## 1
Amino acid sequence: MFLPRAAVCSVLVNAQLNSIELRKLFISSRNFIGSPVEEEVICIGDLYYDEEIPNILFPWLDKLADAGKTILICDPGRHGLSTAKMRFLTKLAAYELTANCCIENKGFKTVFVWKFR
């Protein structure tokens, strides 16, 4: 699976704009679902296009949260994040998208950053 350079650049630029020092940045296209993770912070973005994905992902995230990991999810609130799944999330921030992003995101005008549990 190809991981676009734009995704890496976006992480680096956002960290710099928010005065966050990235001591260790690990990016991979490998499927880690169900595996142990050493990193303290797990970021998941733009993934909830259907309900099957959170059904697979949330039990693993639950275990990671129990292990003290910080899990951040960025999504405009697609239908994959059902009401039942939303109870695990706390909204941390909301950002308005530009007109070009709205077209690419099927009309969603806002993207949210959520903390899992």
Note: The mean pLDDT is 80.
## 2
Amino acid sequence: MAAPHSLPPRGGIYVPVPTFFDTKQPGTVPPLDLDTQAAHSLHLARSGIHGLVLLGSTGEAVHLTRAERTSQIKHVRAALEEAGFKDYPLIAGTATNGIEETVELLKEAKEASAQWGLVLAPGYFAGAVSQEGIEGWFRAVADASPIPILIYHYPGVSNNLVISVSTYRVLSHHPNIVGAKLSHGDISIHTQIANDPAISRTHFHVFTGMGQQLFPVLQVGCFGAIDGLAGIFPKVLVHLYNLVVGEEPMDKKRLDSIRAVQYRVSRAEGLIEKWGTVGIKEAVSRCLGFGEVHGGRLPLARGMGTGEWENWSEAMSEMANLEAAL
């Protein structure tokens, strides 16, 4: 078990980065494009993003071998260090239901230089799982993990698994469980976890997985977002975060600025909400020039499809203009 004082990632904006593949290579399983991976990561770090999540849902971790996962972390870390981003926060995702395999992934992530693990809740048997079972599963993983972990609750990829507020309360007391990413729209749950007097705000940080919630979740005590849109428009999301958490009084001018930026963010987040990883990849390619428009591995290789991008052109253009202005 880790030391009793494992620290959570600091508050801010984190990006669940997509995994880039060299789709110009022949075959049905394109290899990793590690140079593009590093270039995109450096762009985000230089734009003020507080840390990266590698190998999450956006990163198509379920489509990667364990060797590929390790090589991605090592390559990104090496690029960051070479560019002067020493000890830049890297969080490595796991997406498996077995305790032993999850721990193995966390050990390999540590060896590759990730500082935290983002552990997806085990949802394969969601309909039959008790809260006691979830608690026991996370405790077993945290007991054996060499790095602190965050609970990742994404019902959309976990068979709509339910995790109760009381389960978060119990797990928050584990010295090696230091936070949670909540990728669902229930602000009440965010509020209850973030402000539970039985949960230490020093030890356990709550992040939303949805940038369209950034202003409200910061208002109710969460620490930031792990947000896909920030991988396309990093400066805008960091700007919004800074506007909300700034020390100056919340006067009408500042509030109006926050609302205006949050409006644009929320409009653009509709693409992420509808299309997820494939939408993020297409937007990263079209807006930033990293990777290919249809850059996923099967079964995601087709992308959003012909004509869909045009449905989002107005919202994305607004964000691109704001990003350029920053």
Note: The two ends are 43 Å apart (CA to CA).
## 3
Amino acid sequence: MIQIIAITKENKQVCLSSIDQLKTVDYAWYWIDFNQPTTEETDQLDKKLKFHPLAIEDCIHSFQRPKLDYYDDYTFFITHSISREDLSKKEHDFFIGDQYIVTYHNQDSHEINQVWNRFNQTQHTNTWDQYRIFYEILDKIVDNYFPSIYEIEDELNDIENNTNDESTEVLLDKLFDIRHELLKLRHTINPIRDLFYRILNSSHLKGIQERKEYFADIYDHLLKLSEMVASNREITNDIRDNYLSINAHQTNEVMKVLTIITSIFAPLTFIVGIYGMNFANMPELNWQYGYFFILLSMGFIALMMYIWFKRKGWF
């Protein structure tokens, strides 16, 4: 689907149904949105808008790295938003010229829809231009990163406090899932942060330089997001190490108790083994009190070993 809003010289909005209609009137500027376009609609990027084949190829083949490319009379941008459900990336492409902005996305974009509806309902179009549209969309994209990170932080607090009294294995599984989600976020946020650094330091983008403080605010948000992702990954490392240490300590405690029990019973087993051989010339077997003496001896040995282990601090 292709949506078009054109702004006249008198700052009035006009909704158009075809790109060909843009040629009939000298508009101040216009916004074309390619929303999940068909193949025929995508072809208009080349046939009617005359964009560079490499830029069109980047639009068609999704999941390009965020970037900006300079062409003769326009600038091409690639950015990514994320899905709240699975943190998957959604690509947004922008063509910005002196009199237009063209947005292209193969999936429905909540951020672009928000800005489109807001712009379509505004009564003061004189404060809007193509760079204002660009800023509003990017601001929505970046702001929508924060809820996902806040949710991850809440999950980390639950894991750290173990509010549901879950086993270590379950907690570690959740922890590794969170680390995977943080990795997804890092692969999305950091490239866009680098893109904004280029945007802010570019001398070619005069429309952005005129609103540099607004785009710098988005860049600050991206720096904060990047730091939050990095700090949360460090927290997952600490929690993982703590749980592994606790698990190792518990295992050592169990092994220590089993070792002590084995050590106590080793000499008792030795005695039982000797008197279980049933040789004929074993005088103790014919002694009237031999059985009770052996039991007392075994009990005494076990008691002495227990006392010795206790003094060593093994209990």
Note: The chain has a mean pLDDT of 85.
